[in-house]
């Protein structure tokens, strides 16, 4: 991505200290970042910190450097404005169109995507005034992130926690890559997403697993939630990923546990996204104690008999056909494929789509530094009606956004 001009607005909340990491990450990504805090924000983090991290001077009022007209120029020149944290007061002032400091004036002049990352106490987040303000900003085209749930100021815990800096910068990069705002178009839609790899135990120490990091599934859950969906994420083993803000996460280990979790949550879901890398086989017997290596170097290695695991995706398709999932409107599968003597990746993918019976199938060609354990991805999107489209190389979050675009189009077409 070419370097962009980003304004990071910082409102006066205790979470303002996390903005320093947001600035650092965006700067390290090669972007030109200017921090525009409120006066209250500087009571939590000093201007020198933001100046050192961004490499640009920090001002709060419209009377600084008047000859450069910063209260107009900053917004006009920006490719993206990110406000983190966005307090209840800042959201209210943005809705009212106030321009009594440099940050709110910048928001009025910005014609680029604007993203607010709220942070406040739970009671403030759910107050009717804030709810209405958030809805107004989204209706005007701004992106207002769903906050995380967790520890707040003092002993309080609940919704309203600022998403982690990595999540904010990931979504900021997505807006820059898309070139437009992230639509809030999945309100009222319940989505069940699976992610990560399963581990099938051999004994208390060993297991059969795979190289899935869970990054693509987590990206799907994150984008779906920020587009308004009510998301439940069934997470297998991942590479220490941060749970997405605004998402209910259920952690599982094996393919059998994944099947049970899908069976439990799928009846309420409108969309199922099976991005998990589910083991195809498991040991027929699980040893209760560690399998010991014989002291005799000539002794034969133990034999592990395998049996097939249940196909969770195909099972969900059958359950829908049998009327057990009355709310389900779309089922999306994922396939990691390699070519062989019998055909290329797309040949095997088309056969899998027909065999599985899902509505959409995301296909990735896997190999060294491809698909698994990397931050970028590409592939193809196949539909049950025969339509096929390429998913161009980019971040897994951008790929997730393109897949969600296809899911929305599928739902709106009346197919689902």
Question: In words, what does this structure look like?
Answer:
- The protein has 416 residues and is α/β, with parallel strands linked by helices.
- The protein has 2 domains: 5-178, 3-Layer(aba) Sandwich (Rossmann fold); 190-412, CoaB-like (Rossmann fold, 3-Layer(aba) Sandwich), CATH 3.40.50.10300.
- It is 33% helix and 23% strand.
- The strands form 5 sheets. An 8-stranded mixed sheet has the order 12-11-8-13-16-17-18-19, sandwiched between helices.
- α9 (215-226) packs across α13 (396-412).
- It starts with a strand and ends with a helix.
- CTP binds at residues 280, 290, 334, 352, 356.
- Residues 1-190 are annotated as: Phosphopantothenoylcysteine decarboxylase.
- GO terms for molecular function: FMN binding; metal ion binding; phosphopantothenate--cysteine ligase activity; phosphopantothenoylcysteine decarboxylase activity.
- One of its GO terms (cellular component) is phosphopantothenoylcysteine decarboxylase complex.
Keywords:
about 425 residues, Rossmann fold, five-stranded parallel sheet, eight-stranded mixed sheet, alpha/beta, 19 strands, FMN
SSE blueprint and pairings:
Elements: E1 5-10, H1 16-28, E2 32-37, H2 47-54, H3 70-77, E3 80-86, H4 88-96, H5 102-109, E4 114-118, H6 122-125, H7 128-139, E5 143-144, E6 148-151, E7 157-161, H8 165-178, E8 190-195, E9 200-201, E10 207-208, H9 215-226, E11 230-235, E12 247-251, H10 255-265, E13 271-274, E14 281-283, E15 306-308, H11 312-321, E16 330-337, H12 345-356, E17 360-365, E18 376-383, E19 388-395, H13 396-412
Parallel strand pairs: 1-2, 1-3, 3-4, 4-5, 8-11, 8-13, 11-12, 13-16, 16-17
Antiparallel strand pairs: 6-7, 9-10, 14-15, 17-18, 18-19
Helix pairs in contact: 1-2, 1-8, 3-5, 4-7, 9-13
GO molecular function: FMN binding; metal ion binding; phosphopantothenate--cysteine ligase activity; phosphopantothenoylcysteine decarboxylase activity
Keywords: Decarboxylase, Flavoprotein, FMN, Ligase, Lyase, Magnesium, Metal-binding, Multifunctional enzyme
EC number: 4.1.1.36, 6.3.2.5
